[in-house]
Each structure stands twice: as structure tokens, then as C-alpha cells.
Amino acid sequence: MHTHTHTHGRPVGRLLADFGHDLPTRPATEQPGREPRLFTPVPLRGPRRPGRGWSPAAAPVSVWRMTADQAPVLWPLVASPALPPRGAQMGIDLFSRTSFFADPNGWVLDPDLPVSNPNLFMFGKPGMGKSATVKAFCLRMMGFGYRVLVLGDPKDEYETLCRALGVEPIAIGQGLPVRINPLAFGPLGDGWDRLDATEARRRATVVFARWLTLLRGLVGSQKVGHRPVPFGPSEETVLDTALQQLTGYADGNTRLAETTIPQLWRLLDEPPDTLVEACRFASKRHFLDDTRLLRDSLGQLVGGSLRGLFDDHTTISLDWTAPIQSLSLSRLEPLGDQAVGMALMCLNSWGRAMRETARPGDMRIVVRDESWKQLRLGVEAVKAFDADLRLSRRDGDIQFAIAHKPSDLLTAGDAGSQATAIARDLLHLADTKILHGQDQKVADELETLLGLPPMATGLVTDWCRQAPGRAVWLVGESVHKVQTILHPAEHALTFTNQALTQAA
Question: Are 118 and 105 in contact (CB under 8 A)?
Fold first, then answer.
């Protein structure tokens, strides 16, 4: 039996290669290398070198891009930048965990803030602390030289604050002796006989334009059926001409006479030939026929619901050196929203007259509570409100308008109407908006009308409703979560639930 012994020869691959054949080969797998260290290790006691002790390793830096709404979720310690620490200290900014300061005029002057006007709009449900925030802001801004003018207090909410500051508020209502002439010259009437021709014409242009704005709003606030009383170029010409004759401006007098709405109405109701000719009417009968609606509208101010309020010369003299002045309108509430709105418009015109020659540095906060009542009077009333807001930057005044919700402004007219379009634009005339608690059903209009981001909308409909004094402040494009802090003395001056407390 033979035993076969196997010897090692050439491998099969090489043998096949000799005949021109190659076996398929599997590529070699690349072995993974060691991952680089994220941190540089350091001995517990530090490097063994003189003067070197323990030090932590340097952490790697990663860049992440996200929106302002996402950043607080992924990194909750991120804080929004705080506003400059100047102006009234209102409370705590819970985003930055710093004190929140309000300075509307200072924000306009700050090139780093996208704020172009000092106007403030405030919205919120009743009982959410709107009045307390307004009063605290006004009270604290007085320390910076501001004075406060409350042009119409429908609920007498500012009377306690006025009396605490040594000022007796002025009450307006039927049966009271107070009269306010919305056609008063104001300071513009001082020294008229000493003016040169150019300055006299300039003042006359300002005065007559203000009067026409007021009268256009008062006439347009009344309706024939469901339509407002028309006020076109013919009506404006008639009123302008009549006012010039009543004041003596048409005769070239150097000292103009102050007129009233009853005097204007009587002149139109019994027009002289000079007025008929100046207005280019063919006859007195033609004049009376074409101005019937105009005369009847003015007659409502003389003998209607506002009789005894704005139909005579002003019987009060405001002390403009006082820290605050307030005109209470609560006695007009039984007359309805239209009467209150018309009164607000008259007061606004009169207040504008008082401010037309304000001295430099005479800064004032003009509070407009229940402003939506004026806007509901029609397109001309909206235009008058719009004009006041646009003049705030020039005059240095802070216009502070208060309403329940943003859509209140859109009740100025029907959907798609001119009044609604102008009212919607009013929101853009206030770069600062203060939003107190609102119901969830208001969330949509917060986003559509104010452009509020979802995070801020959630704060208004949730966090702000949990306690009074909580509000979201929109200053330009920045959002601030603010809790207003009141001193006990301020709380007593701003408390508005006395009636409920006494009833309980």
C-alpha cells in the first residue's frame, strides 16, 4: 500500500493566471479609524509644568440656525434683548429677566429700534389690568416732565388719580354749567393783531382746516336712513365761507372773533346775500334747498342730545401747568354710544387747539379711552382720529388709545368700506402695542391684524389671562413678556372695581 504525500505547490489563482484567467477578488474593507476626541484630556492636577494648574477642556462650538420661536424651546436660557433702561419702569420683562422700561419718544430717537412714532395702542378684556397699566405709565412718566390730558373719561376712572395729584376733574353733561366750544381758537388766537400777513394766513389755514375736519366728522356721523349725511366739496365750501365771515377773516380784520356752532347754524339757516354770492348759488332758495341736510345735521348739535355741552363759548380754563387734566363723560352714557362718540370728537378738536402752539419741551400724554366709540361715527370721524395720530411725532405728544380688541377699530364701517380701510391702517400708526389677556377666539385677529407670531399669540390668550397686569408689549418688531408691578399706593389709585367690592 502506497502512501501519497501532498506537497505545497502554486495556488489555483496563479495556475489559472498562467493560462490567462483571473479569479474575482473581494476588495479589502477599510478599517474604521478612531474618532477624534471632542475634548482635549487634561490631567486631574493639570499639566506637569510650573505655573500650570487644573483647567477644563475647551468645548467645541456648533452653529445652529433657527427662528425666534424655536430658540427658546431648544435652548430655554436664551433671552430676548432688553430695551434701554430709560423712561417709566413698568415691571419685569420675563423673557430677559430684567426690568422693563417704557419710553415711547426715546424709542423713536433710538436708531437701533424700529420705532417711527410714539403712539400706543392697548387692547385687552375688561378686568385684565388695562386701566392700571395706563395710569401707572402716566404717573411714572410725570417724573420725566410729561403732563397728562385725558380727552374724555367715559367711566370716571381717572378722577381718583386727578384728585390725588391736586387737580379737580372736569365733568361734562347735560344740566352741568361746563361748556366747551370745539370752534375755539385756542392759543392760536393770541396776538393775532400783531402778526404779519404771512403768519396770519398760516394760522388761519390751520384753524379753518381743524374746524372743517371736526364739522365734517360731526355731519358725517349722522345718517339718512342707513347712509351717512353726504359731505362733499359743496358743503365744505359753504362751511369754510361761513366761518370766514363769522370770524371777520373774509373782511380782512386783524383781530378775529371767536364763533360757535349755534352761530354757524343760524348763519346758514338765515344766509345773507354775501354768503349766497360767495358760495356761487343762484338764489337764496337754491342755497337753502341744497344745504338742508347740512343745516339739519348742525341743528342736532344745537338742539339734540348734545345740547348744552358744545353750543356756547368755553366756560372753563385749564391749568396747563398741572400734572393732569381730565374731562369726565360718564353722565353722557345714558345718551348712547353715538352721543359719547360725538363728544369725544369735539373734545379731541378742542384739545388739538390747546396744543397747537405748545412750547418746546412741553411733552404731553393724550389718553383716548373707549376710542372705538368715535371711530364708529363713520369715515370722517376715522379721518379725524387718523390726523391726530399722524401729528403726534411732530408735536412730541404720546397718543394712548385704548380698546377691547383690535377688531373694534374695524367696526367703523362695513367690510371693504373706506372707513374700515382707514381704521385698519390706524394700527400701523402705533409702533407700540400693549396686549392684555384675550379669549382664544380673538387669536385669529391678533395674527391677521397685528401680525403677532404664534408664540406671542399664545401668551396673550393664556399667560396674560392668568392674572391682571400681564401683557405682551410689541415694541417695533420685538416681543416682551411683561408683568406690571404696582406700588401699594399706586394700586389704590388705579383700582377700578370699587363698585363690585362695595356690592360684595
Answer: yes
Phi, psi of 460 (to 5 degrees): -65, -40
The answer to whether residues 303 and 241 belong to one domain is yes
For the stretch 134-146, pLDDT in tens is 999 999 999 999 9
In angstroms, the CA 186 to CA 258 distance is 10
Number of domains composing the chain: 2
Going from the C-alpha of 362 to that of each of 36, 334, 353, the distances in angstroms are 68, 36, 15
pLDDT digits (tens, 9 = 90+) for 347-372: 877 777 766 666 767 888 999 888 77
Please give the Cα distance from 418 to 426 (Å, whole number).
13
Q: Print burial letters for 307-341: b (CB count within 10 Å at least 16), e (below 16).
A: ebbbbeebeeeeeeeebbbbbbbbbbeebebbbbb
In a domain, 70, yes or no: no
Cα 122-155-463 angle, rounded to 5 deg: 35
Domain containing residue 490? 88-174+365-503
| Statement to judge: residues 369 and 470 lie in one domain | yes
Other CB atoms within 10 Å distance of the CB of residue 297: 23
Contact call for residues 169 and 152 (beta carbons, < 8 A)? no
- pTM metric for this prediction: 0.75
308 lies in the same domain as 199: yes
Q: Does any domain span residue 137? A: yes
